[in-house]
Amino acid sequence: MAKAKKQFICSECGHAHPQWVGQCGQCKAWNTLEEELVVPATKREKRSGMAELQAPKVRPLHEVDVAELPRLDMGEKELNRVLGGGSVPGGVVLLGGEPGIGKSTLMLQVALAVGASGAKVLYISGEESAEQVRMRANRLGAIAPSVLIYPQTQVPAVLDALRREKPALVVVDSIQTLDLPDQDGVPGSVGQIRESAAALTTYAKVSGTPLFMVGHITKEGSLAGPKVLEHMVDVVLQFEGDRHHSYRMLRAAKNRFGTTAELGIYEMTGEGLASVDHPSEVLLGERGSAESGSAVAVSLQGVRPMLVETQALVSTAVYGTPQRSGTGFDLRRLNMLLAVLEKRCEFKLGQFDVFLNLAGGLKIQDPANDLAVVAAILSSKLNVPLDNRTCFAGEVGLSGEIRPVPRLEQRMMEAARLGMERMLVSGHGSHPKAPKGLTVVPVKRVAEVHRVIF
To answer: Which of 5, 333, 357, 418 has the smallest CB count inside 10 Å?
Structure first.
């Protein structure tokens, strides 16, 4: 650590003196010099911009200004929804996802949308050349002159460009490609990722510039690099989806400036990622005629209700041990629901394979899906199709009771809007008045579901 030096600052004019004197040499005031310690900036502080950061002062908490910070509109409705209304000044966002899922496409669309509003955007590309980025941008829309591209992996050069250009938004694609010359390790190593992210984060905080960083993930599904990377940033976004399906989900695993319950849905098209305003209509539009093993769940993600088709297949086990498989649904919860059906309803499934799938490649975790899963399993086992105009919203407990779910009125409104005629909900407690055209059927136990739906 660099040795601290003493200097004497005039409280009247701020002039610095190397030693104490009775009269300030600048303003000629007497007895105004106060001693201060000055610590020279280290190499790490100089390269990251920490030397420019003013020392904080101790002050009462009630004097801190809590005025609402203006947010930068990202130009993407779904991204704004997940962020909580846009990006705050100095906010650092980390976007992770599997290779080929569309992370770079989403960030380039954001850069073009923000640039179209006249704001300067600097896109740092560490994986592609400027020509390759331009080729992708050509199919995404118009390219504003304020969108700048800088193919660079050296962090000092990136920081110099940021201080010179002073953009309103910075996109780094990706953090694993950046390199600090005076840091040991190759790009992508733990030390390089940590120090590179720290340098960029410090610049964002000092300048008040929103920063988006794209991150790779490991084969286990976690973000590559040190865990401290997720602690350093303000928002951690996960871009999910099945590459064999066109739908992508954007959700927040961490958000210091908003909720983590919101969900953004995109559809991958030839012109890039398109926002899905009404996912229920898109997902249910793929349903054909009534088939056994299909039930509609009225799910809720954040404050957005959506109808999702739940598909189940129950068949005789070919091998000795029955298979249990769930796509887009928690396998442990599926096993729990099967145990409840066998124990509370005497519905023997021990010698059958059970496969469950949420249509559209979605991964939705909502306890309200339990009732639809139970109905789909019963329908497949008995090979009796359910009514196409019946939907379900209820949580199943271990004792076989159907528990109420939150925001039931919003779920009813969405079901009625899409033409549903009957909705099975929990019979415990009161429920809001059903909208016109929708009949609400309360059920208290899992054993009652079989009698009601067939």
So the answer is: 5
| pLDDT over threshold 80, residue 226 | no
pTM attached to this predicted model: 0.76
User: Which run of H or E residues covers position 227?
Assistant: none
How far apart CA 132 and CA 121 sit, in angstroms, is 18
Q: How far apart are CA 209 and CA 352, in angstroms?
A: 57
Confirm whether 265 is domain-assigned.
yes
Token reading at 388: 């196409």
Torsion of CA 357, 358, 360, 365, to 10 degrees: -140
CB neighbour burial string for 352-367, b if at least 16 within 10 angstroms, e if fewer: bbbbbbbbbbbebebb
Structurally, how many domains does the chain consist of? 3
What average pLDDT score do residues 278-284 get?
75
CATH number of the domain bearing residue 231: 3.40.50.300
- Domain coverage including residue 235: 77-277
Domain co-membership, 230 together with 350: no
Residue type, 296: V
**pLDDT tens by residue, 65-80:** 766 678 899 989 999 9
Query: What is the spatial distance between Cα 216 and Cα 404, in angstroms, rounded to a whole number?
Result: 39
